[in-house]
């Protein structure tokens, strides 16, 4: 078992998984690779035009394997330590220990590194030699690379991608410096221990690459390169902590999800680092034909974003800024289809123009535009950050999305309602349908938020926004008291993935508990068991809302079939097909913990909480919850809920909070003071 000797955040195995796709990833906000792989990727660096756009393969000197010639009595282990953000390979013989550590530096985002340490365990004086095997060649199928002069002992190459995403558009540049790697390393006869460190600095400019490499060398000289990474990573983990008393397999899954998701986000206090979005397979994947080619989908905004927002709103803001930077591309998408405003692409790369290789998805899966605006709404309600909207382009995006939805609707004289026709809902087994319940509900919520935002910014509200929001059709069967997926849906038709159940959460579309239950009952048995991993998490959240704890757990358990051993790498589909390192599934899974077990709901006026978790779980503690400039620590047991304000921001000043119980009791919350209550439902902050 890869249980890290009981530590749920350390995954150790004696052998690697059978397929290299299931190897763990080491990633930061700008660089990513799978361990032992001979390529890496840099954020925002795509090659290929339109539907051929994919992450450019950058040759990686980091994919080194260790070998010991002529020795057979060796013990090997491979460990992913999610507490330190480090992968290690250890070889042990009776006389010596060899440790290979690999990591993407969390705070120095243009730097990746590995070290090899040989330590003598006995009193012998014979040399110990380790061979280093590598497939590294400083060439790429996606980059026109040129060697440059060595710099501070490092080799240097630079070049541009071969094909721009759009005709006449920019071709991103890559500059890479790396420590030359010998074929072998030897511990001398008189040495007891020695460590060799190897760096790779990759950036979009020569200056940034050289600066990062020089900084890395200085830290190597001070003996603190790895410890500086561990310190930065540990600070992030402390501020985004989820602790649970429950089954080990569940705790391991949580730590694995946190490691892979937090690896993708910018470090704290890094306003100068442009963020380029999160793709379903992460930055480590996305070469041509692999893991959706590194494109950004609704997966980022619907499945991953809410977790990051709750724990790290600065990173959530960076995600939204990626969408703002691609707004002009979204305007072009709408214009090409004959609509106003901005239609965000089903698959996005650097420009915001549609890069989906298959036209049907790009043309019809338009709910992504509303999904993005819901992320903006959740951010605003959690932070009240008006600067994003007033000064940093957020309002222009909100306005453009509202314009798109109004232009995309058509008036039905028969229904006396607005329709949205010819779409593909989240359930991709159906296309060219009219009035997808989810699509129409997300459009309605987009327009309601645009109206709310305009009023908060003291801007005029176009009458058509309120009119279209009020009169859009969201299909509902009055007889059966459930939401048909679209006009003409017949109960029992197979469904690919979570669709209508998303109306309850995250949309919080108004409905009774009876209708919520009926939607779950209707779609659970017809949803494809082989569908994508995030689906069952939303059924679990729904059953938790209704306090059907065993049914919720049975849905959550389905997710475990998508988690591979020994490094907790998720696969998109339970049969192993689809994307690997499937961050979307991890995001859905974490939402069960952060929003399902806690009952957190972000509303216009408060943060609701209504905890519920299955019998095998006795305690949940979440540290670093962010709300209106406050950092909260929430501890939930079966007997009580304990809320403590651990930190308040000064610039801008945090909003004062109070806990309000269902019976009307009010408890002020001040920094350093804990409020304890019995487990009363429907509480709010």
Automatic annotation (TrEMBL):
EC assignment: the record states 3.2.1.107
Family membership, please give it: Belongs to the glycosyl hydrolase 65 family.
Its EC top class is hydrolase
* Organism listed in the record: Regulus satrapa
Q: Which GO terms describe its biological process?
A: carbohydrate metabolic process
Q: Where is the Glycoside hydrolase family 65 C-terminal domain?
A: 601-647
Q: What is this protein called?
A: Protein-glucosylgalactosylhydroxylysine glucosidase
Q: Which Pfam families match?
A: Glyco_hydro_65C (PF03633), Glyco_hydro_65m (PF03632)
Q: Per its UniProt record, what SUPFAM superfamilies does this chain match?
A: Six-hairpin glycosidases
Gene (name only): Pgghg
Q: Which reaction is this enzyme known to catalyze? A: (5R)-5-O-[alpha-D-glucosyl-(1->2)-beta-D-galactosyl]-5-hydroxy-L-lysyl-[collagen] + H2O = (5R)-5-O-(beta-D-galactosyl)-5-hydroxy-L-lysyl-[collagen] + D-glucose
Q: Which GO terms describe its cellular component?
A: cytosol
């Amino acid at each position: 078992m890869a249980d890290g000797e009981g530590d749920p955040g350390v995954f150790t195995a004696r052998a690697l998984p059978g397929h290299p796709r299931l190897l763990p990833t080491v990633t930061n906000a700008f660089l990513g690779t799978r361990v032992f792989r001979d390529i890496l990727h840099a954020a925002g660096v795509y090659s290929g035009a339109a539907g051929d756009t994919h992450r450019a393969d950058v040759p990686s000197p980091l994919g080194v394997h260790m070998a010991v010639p002529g020795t057979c009595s060796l013990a090997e282990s491979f460990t992913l330590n999610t507490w330190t953000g480090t992968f290690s390979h250890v070889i042990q013989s009776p006389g010596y220990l060899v440790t290979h550590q690999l990591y993407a530096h969390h705070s120095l985002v243009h730097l990746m590194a590995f070290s090899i340490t040989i330590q003598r365990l006995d009193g012998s004086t014979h040399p110990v030699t380790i061979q280093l095997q590598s497939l590294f060649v400083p060439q790429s199928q996606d980059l026109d690379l040129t060697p440059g002069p060595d710099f501070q002992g490092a080799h240097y190459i630079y070049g541009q991608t071969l094909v721009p995403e759009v005709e006449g558009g920019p071709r991103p540049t890559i500059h890479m410096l790396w420590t030359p790697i010998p074929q072998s390393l030897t511990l001398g006869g008189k040495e007891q221990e020695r460590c060799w460190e190897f760096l790779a600095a990759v950036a979009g400019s020569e200056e940034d690459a050289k600066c990062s490499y020089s900084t890395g060398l200085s830290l190597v000289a001070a003996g603190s390169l790895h410890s500086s990474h561990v310190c930065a990573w540990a600070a992030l983990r402390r501020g985004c902590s989820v602790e649970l008393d429950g089954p080990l397999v569940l705790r391991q899954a949580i730590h694995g999800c946190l490691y892979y998701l937090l690896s993708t986000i910018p470090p704290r206090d890094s306003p100068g680092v442009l963020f380029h979005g999160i793709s379903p397979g992460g930055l480590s994947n996305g070469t041509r034909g692999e893991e959706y080619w590194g494109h950004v989908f609704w997966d980022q905004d619907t499945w991953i974003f809410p977790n990051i927002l709750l724990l790290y709103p600065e990173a959530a803001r960076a995600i939204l800024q990626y969408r703002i930077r691609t707004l002009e591309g979204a305007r072009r998408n709408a214009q090409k289809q004959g609509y106003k405003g901005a239609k965000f692409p089903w698959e996005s790369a650097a420009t915001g123009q549609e890069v989906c290789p298959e036209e049907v998805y790009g043309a019809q899966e338009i709910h992504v535009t509303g999904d993005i605006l819901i992320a903006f709404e959740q951010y605003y309600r959690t932070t009240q950050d008006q600067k994003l909207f007033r000064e940093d382009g957020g309002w222009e995006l909100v306005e453009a999305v509202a314009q798109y939805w109004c232009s995309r609707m058509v008036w039905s004289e028969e229904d006396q309602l607005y329709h949205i026709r010819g779409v593909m809902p989240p359930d991709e087994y159906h296309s060219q349908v009219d009035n997808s319940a989810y699509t129409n509900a997300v459009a309605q919520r987009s327009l309601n938020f645009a109206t709310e935002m305009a009023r908060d910014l003291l801007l005029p509200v176009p009458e058509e926004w309120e009119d279209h929001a009020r009169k859009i059709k969201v299909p509902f069967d009055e007889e059966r008291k459930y939401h048909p997926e679209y006009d003409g849906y017949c109960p029992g038709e197979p469904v690919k993935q979570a669709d209508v159940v998303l109306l309850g959460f995250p949309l919080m579309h108004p409905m009774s508990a009876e209708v919520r239950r009926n939607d779950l009952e209707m779609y659970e048995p017809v949803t494809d068991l082989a569908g994508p991993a995030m689906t069952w998490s939303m059924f679990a959240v729904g059953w938790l809302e209704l306090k059907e704890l065993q049914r919720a757990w049975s849905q959550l358990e389905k997710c475990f079939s998508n988690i591979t051993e020994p490094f907790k790498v998720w696969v998109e589909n339970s049969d192993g097909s689809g994307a690997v390192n499937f961050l979307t599934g991890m995001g859905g899974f974490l939402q069960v913990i952060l929003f399902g077990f806690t009952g957190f709901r972000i509303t216009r006026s408060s943060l609701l909480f209504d905890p519920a978790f299955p019998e095998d779980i006795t305690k949940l503690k979440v540290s670093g919850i962010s709300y209106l400039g406050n950092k909260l620590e929430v501890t939930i047991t079966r007997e009580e809920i304990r809320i403590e304000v651990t930190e308040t921001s000064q610039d801008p000043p945090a909003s004062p909070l109070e806990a309000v119980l269902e019976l009307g009791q009010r408890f002020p919350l001040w920094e350093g003071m804990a409020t304890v209550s019995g487990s009363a439902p429907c509480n709010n902050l």
